[in-house]
Amino acid sequence: MKINQFSITSTTPQTRRQELMQIHLLRKNEEQSLTPKAMFETFLARIHMASAQPIVTKQWFHDLLATPDLALDDWFDQNLTLTDEVFYLVALQLLDFEAAVDFDITNPLATIKKVGLPVKHYQQWTTANVIDAFYLLLNTHNKNGQSLLDHLTSEGFLAWTYQLPAEQKPLFFNGKPLASFDPAKFIREVVYIEADMDTDFDGKADLIKAEIMRPLESNHGLKVPVVFTASPYNQGTNDEWGEKATHNVNVPLKHKDANHHAPAEETFPTNFSRQKVTGESQHATETFSTTPAYTLNNYLAARGYAVVYSAGIGTKDSDGLQTCGSSEQTDAMKAVVEWLHGDRQAFTDRHSGTTIKATWCNGKVAMTGRSYLGTLATAVATTGVPGLEAIISEAAISSWYDYYRENGLVRAPGGFQGEDADVLADETFSRTKRPADYHRIEKVNDQYIAHMQKAMDRASGNYNEFWDHRNYRHNLENIKAAVMMVHGLNDTNVRPSNVKALYDGIQNLPITSKLILHQGQHIYINAFRSLDFSDMVNLWLANKLWGQENHADDTLPNVLVQDNRTPETWIAYDHWTAGEQKQYQFNDHRLTNLPGLGTQGFNDQQPKEKYLQWCKRPQDWAKALVNDHGQFSRCFVTEAFNDDTLLRGTPTVTLKVASSKNYGMISARLVDLGSSKRLTISPVLFNRNGLELGYHWKTDDLREFKLAKEATNYKVISSGHINLQNRHNPAQVNELNANQFVTVKFDLQPLFHHIIAGHQLGIIIYSTDYEYTLRGNERIEYQLELGGCQLTIPGFTILS
Q1: In terms of C-beta density within 10 A (0-12 exposed, 13-18 middle, 19 or more buried), how is residue 379 classed?
Q2: Which residue from 463, 512, 587, 620 has the highest number of Cβ atoms inside 10 Å of its Cβ?
Q3: Strand, helix or coil for residue 648
Q4: Choice among 491, 532, 700, 747 that is catalytic
Q5: Compositional bias (Polar residues) spans (predicted)?
């Protein structure tokens, strides 16, 4: 077990004492009047939430160890001196570590060091030392993934703060707001924000529904910031529609006409009417009971942040159509930010014309969420909209072409073969949940989706105007908000190329950026035991939204990466790509410093029975690919690494290749070869509802990556694909003759990978990818001219 904390910020001795007094743990003159031992006893008695009766507290002390041989109450009764060993033996028990299971009672400091808990060492403890050490202990994470203070808060330690007047809130501790807002009294309300568009062709400006949950204190003078999650899924999905709309991928690749151009997508009206204003209200007229929630938002809500959800255009109770990543969808979500900032009109309901303002908001907004949600956070940030101070962009798309296409090929997101922009639009068009509303809009929607299908041009896979309109990288220079990016290095849904491009594109902007790379796939990381992610976000947003001078930008790492070799290990870096560039030549079946001679080939076709099996179970194909001996792929392998080595950045493959047809595609997988116990593919649940987000409030499941019980012989660490007719760029089609050797150069997915000494690095070159590409099963012979084939890795660092 290892706990990594990056959110504990530096404070002055005076601040520490003020904050301890603020939470009623330290009282005036106690530092001068109490001995170190008495101060320690006083602190412990005050955090005992079961009862304030001395007899009950003494019984609690009786069940805690102060030394291997003395219960804490007996130790207090004797004339013994406080030491590091005593303080941290008690600390481990307060942090829910189990004696004889998690630590040795005879050597608590060894466990403190092994687990990575922050510690204070003193040769002779003073009362001031006790205060400083206990302050640090309150900020220390326990075995169940939360700080001791948050654990105490979930037991009611700060329930008295619910009664504080609004002007005394929020309470900050170590630079972060505490859970001092009563969830039972949250205000829940709905507003309808008027956008500058008419995406359902009804001649009226689209209204966007937003659901708001905010603390009661925001009705009594406290201006609060907002965390806003833009989620097209929020009002429901059409899963059956999605299944029916999914495209058949068991079709052959085709030769492309160099003069082919896809039709432009449909445009929306620019002339439309706006709702007539009939009056203004200070109070919303609609409410809601529950809404699909992000647990990070729930954590923040108890700490004074208002939480806003909107599904945007084309969803239940809103107007418009689902446009899947278009500028209209971006502008609809931007409109929510503008209303929160005071720059846009909203109504209390859809028809009365009664306007309402977000008078309770301090005008500062952060956007949160994963996948589509994080994508829209990125998109809105590129508009430079005032009021958007920060985004937490998790597993987010920065260019939709990189989600559904790659280098002139139709390429599916992992696990969703046959999905495309039209399918996602169908799945999220939740206006179907209101039958009469859907009846009125059905024909218009059908016509729009038909236009979308043509414009996205699944037939060619080329980059075109449709995808260019959904490429947020064009507008990165407009970003004014601070950006925190979170992405899985093994995410095959939204691939790491999306976050790498965003990260690279904003490094020279005058904004703060933070990057967190984990070893998971398409997941949230706010409920990991090994990382204080929620605390990091709370510290960061306290600075960006509450205006706290808490050193958040200096405290949090610029790049934080979860190690793929050692469980529960997170390492801070300054940059993603660093180290020496390494270039390997394809030589026989090896990757060496010397170029190879001659050609090697493979045939992409499979027997029908095996083809059908692999179409049904692509994971069987993936295993067969690694074990293939040249029938449908070629593999080139390095010598065993002499030292542990870190690979960082975006690998590039250059191939001189020929196809026996006048079309073809090439794929590549970069593989870590070597027997080893690797981290589980997904985090392991080890404490259901074990993470409490406040007092009598929501919970989350505590998870963590573990080493698998059995060793495996390989792990795919990167991959890439290219159409041989798009060898110069995804928008340009070049002619290809059968058996004509051409040079293609394409990026693999970015990596940050720790290769263990004794392992080898291999690259597999093949064509059809049963997990991601079209699967035509044609008899195509591919030839590689080895002298023109290289693998380049930009960041190559030998670890000492």
Answers
A1: buried
A2: 463
A3: strand
A4: 491
A5: 268-284
Taking only the tens place, the pLDDT of each residue in 712-740 is 999 999 999 999 999 999 999 999 999 99
3-state secondary structure of 504: helix
Helix (H, G, I), strand (E, B) or coil at 748: coil
Confidence of residue 290 (pLDDT cuts 50, 70, 90): confident
The residue written with tokens 């040079």 in the block is: 743
- 653-676 average pLDDT score: 98
| Location of structure tokens 């960082």 | 648
371 catalytic? Reply is yes
Rounded distance between C-alpha atoms, residue 552 and residue 7, angstroms: 8
The H or E element that residue 172 is part of is: strand 172-173
CB neighbour list of residue 163: distance below 8 Å, 6 or more residues apart: none
Percentage of residues of the chain with pLDDT beyond 90: 96
745 forms bridges with which residues in the sheet?
654
Q: So where are the chain's domains?
A: 13-168, 183-236+270-484, 580-682+706-798
Residues 6+ apart with CB under 8 A from 317: 209, 235, 350, 434
Which residue intervals of 267-313 are DSSP H helices?
295-301
- Taking only the tens place, the pLDDT of each residue in 763-798 is 999 999 999 999 999 999 999 999 999 999 999 999
62 classed as catalytic? no
Tokens 């009661």 appear where? 216
Q: What angle do CA 635, 638, 644 make, to 5 degrees?
A: 130
pLDDT at 800 over 80: no
Among 430, 64, 420, residue whose Cα is nearest residue 246: 420
**Rounded to an integer, what distance in angstroms lies between the CA atom of residue 532 and that of residue 691?**
12
Domain 580-682+706-798 class in CATH? mainly beta
CB 467 within 8 A of CB 324: no
Separation between Cα atoms, residue 770 and residue 614, nearest integer Å: 7
Share of the chain above pLDDT 70, in %: 100
Q: CA 462, CA 562: separation in Å to the nearest integer?
A: 35
State whether residue 639 is helix, strand or coil: coil
Contact 175, 16 (CB under 8 A): no
Q: Which residues face 677 on adjacent strands?
A: none
* pLDDT at residue 296, as a whole number: 95
> Tokens for 601?
């080939």
- Picking from 392, 364, 367, 399, the residue whose alpha carbon sits closest to that of residue 475 is 399
C-alpha 161: how far from chain center: 32
State the DSSP code for 202.
S
Residue 404 — φ and ψ, nearest 5°?
Answer: -110, -5
402 is catalytic: no
Which of these, 207, 225, 542, lies nearest to 352 by C-alpha position? 207
HSE toward the beta carbon, residue 248, CA cutoff 13 A: 5
Of these residues, 371, 513, 530, 718, which one is catalytic? Answer: 371
Cα angle: 766, vertex 404, 763; to 5 degrees: 25
Count other C-beta atoms under 10 Å from residue 174's C-beta.
Answer: 24
pLDDT of amino acid 114: 95
In one-letter notation, the amino acid at residue 130 is: V
User: Is 206 in contact with 318 (CB distance < 8 Å)?
Assistant: yes
Dist CA 378 CA 797 (whole Å): 31
Compute the distance between CA of residue 134 and CA of residue 200 in angstroms, rounded to an integer. Answer: 60
Q: What counts of helices (H) and strands (E) characterise the chain? A: 22, 32
Residue 334 and residue 274: Cα distance in Å, rounded? 18
Q: Which CATH number fits domain 183-236+270-484: 1.20.950.20, 3.30.70.141, 3.40.50.1220, 3.40.50.1820?
A: 3.40.50.1820
Question: Which residue is it, tokens 């693999």?
Answer: 748
Q: Output the six-digit token pair for 406.
A: 């790659």
Longest dimension (CA), the chain: 92
Token pair belonging to 225: 């910031």
Residue 686, exposed/middle/buried by CB under 10 A (0-12, 13-18, 19+)? Answer: middle
345-361 pLDDT, tens digit each? 999 999 999 999 999 99
